[in-house]
Amino acid sequence: MKKVLFIAALMIFSCDSALDVEIKNNISTSNFFQSQVDFDLALTGAYDILGNHQDDSGFGTYFRGLLCMGRAGTDEGYIVASFAQYGVELSNYTFTPVSQVPDRVWAFQYKGISRANTVITRLERAGDIDMPQAERNRIEGEARFLRAFYYFQLVRYYGGVPLVTEEVTDISQVNFERASIADVYAQIIEDLQAAEQLLPISNENGRAERYAATAFLAKAYLQMSGFPLQDDTAAALAAQKAKEVIDSGLYALLPNYEDVFKLENEYTSEYIFSVQFAFCGNCEGGQVGTWDGVPGNWAFARTYNIFRTFNEHYDAYDPNDLRRDYNIVDYRIIDADGNTTPTNDGNKYAFKWRHAPNPEDRPGGTGWFEWQSSFDFPLTRYADILLTYAEAINRSNGAPNAEAYEAINRLRRRGFGVDMTMPSAVADLPTGLSFNEFQDAVLDERKFELCYEGHRWHDLVRFGKLIDAVKSINSTESLERSPAANNIQPHHVFFPIPQSQIQISDGVLIQNEGY
């Protein structure tokens, strides 16, 4: 049974602005941090930022806002105009410094940072609390992992941001000046390295464990190796860390691609770290699989299909790749048995997470709400690390080697429905690819394998191909689907600093170029 990690009622820390961390709750931190239980509850509040929908309706979390950022505005898909309030600006590249989603995403990452900082600071002062050292290590490791994760979000979306690494109880203590991108990454690496040493090998469902920190070290180093830092030393470090995850033996690919996204398989060997959602009445369920999905009778389809995919994405797959017709469909669900009929509307629908068409077979039965999906959202899984390894080897060596080929070919073989462990003339990449050809193959494979999981925007930015990818969408054939091709500009590799935060800082925060 899924453990409910997020406790909506536990809101130990609250603030009006992203960097204003004045405590405004009837739980006083001066008498709260008195036991291990208290620290674990505080950690729950720090994790809660990932999927919270009780505050601002989830526009800064993976409940809504971050289900848009990372995939809308790429060549994977778009937000339909009829749901403009949920992020159509991201698809069209018409967002501004006052747009809702970038504003709330910024704010919620800093709320998470604030909560993690408080845990770390109070733990340092908790010398007389009776707590085993292993538990102290775990708590600090989880808090540092979360702080690193939230800064990783910020630096990728906004560039250099203010670094706040201590508990703050007065807004006058905050330095609003933006740190450099390199300095933010340095903080991320420091925290992840510490977390890697402090965290246990295994942990409760939904909480970070040691190789989650190692996996995100690999991902952070890989991002550093591309745009904008172009760090020449980072790719080798990414390869090293990805290899450590692979060699741990703790993770493995499931034999069938479609099984990865079934509700009952969320805690299998393929998942490394995910946003946790659970059906439990009106609490912390999610919208994974409800924002995507197909049209049809509401009782059976139970999706808004807000996020849809491009015809060009479908056409990019090899016809022999079974992932294509699992990830992308053009039908409606018409009954509780899951029978379908063609839509004939020219649209393609993203359909990666599929709940049972019969309401009686869903978690919560007929009481299952569209904002109470139990599907977790994977932030990294083993397939992501295999592709990280392949790309990092190519970047660090200037060419692929046998290990890089094998890492990507295992995924392709699974996708093509053949034995993952045996060479395949149908599925394997051709040998002898140049550096650039292998880079292109990795970038494509990340789209085929990881589509809709929030990686694509970061991948395209890292490769320096965001504008080319967006402009590749034919706006004439795609109806409403890509005004982005006409609107995207070079400065869109970063989102705007929210105007609300510039005002709070009295102008100390400097806006990104182009906004």
The CATH topology label of one domain is Serine Threonine Protein Phosphatase 5, Tetratricopeptide repeat
User: Helical region count?
Assistant: 19
User: Per DSSP, what share of the residues sits in E-state strands of 2 or more residues?
Assistant: 5-15%
Task: Going across the biggest sheet, name each strand in turn.
Answer: 1-3-7-4
Pick out the low-confidence regions: 1-17, 20-27
The description of the largest β-sheet is: 4 strands, antiparallel
Summed over residues and divided by their number, the pLDDT gives a mean of 91
CATH architecture of one domain: Alpha Horseshoe
One letter per element, helices H and strands E, the order comes to HHHEHHHHHHEHEHHEEEEEHHHHHHH
Oligomer classification: single chain
Helix content: 40-55%
| Separation, N- and C-terminal Cα atoms | 47 Å
The radius of gyration is 22 Å
Helix/strand class: mainly alpha
Indicate the CATH class of one domain.
Mainly Alpha
Any idea what the shape is?
globular
- In total, the number of strands is 8
Strand and helix map with partners:
Blueprint: H1 29-32, H2 36-48, H3 65-68, E1 77-79, H4 88-92, H5 100-124, H6 133-158, H7 181-198, H8 210-225, H9 234-247, E2 271-275, H10 298-301, E3 307-309, H11 311-316, H12 322-327, E4 328-329, E5 331-333, E6 340-342, E7 348-350, E8 377-381, H13 382-397, H14 402-416, H15 435-450, H16 456-463, H17 466-471, H18 484-487, H19 499-504
Antiparallel strand pairs: 1-3, 2-8, 3-7, 4-7, 5-6
Helix pairs in contact: 2-5, 2-6, 5-6, 6-7, 6-8, 7-8, 8-9, 8-13, 9-13, 13-14, 13-15, 15-16
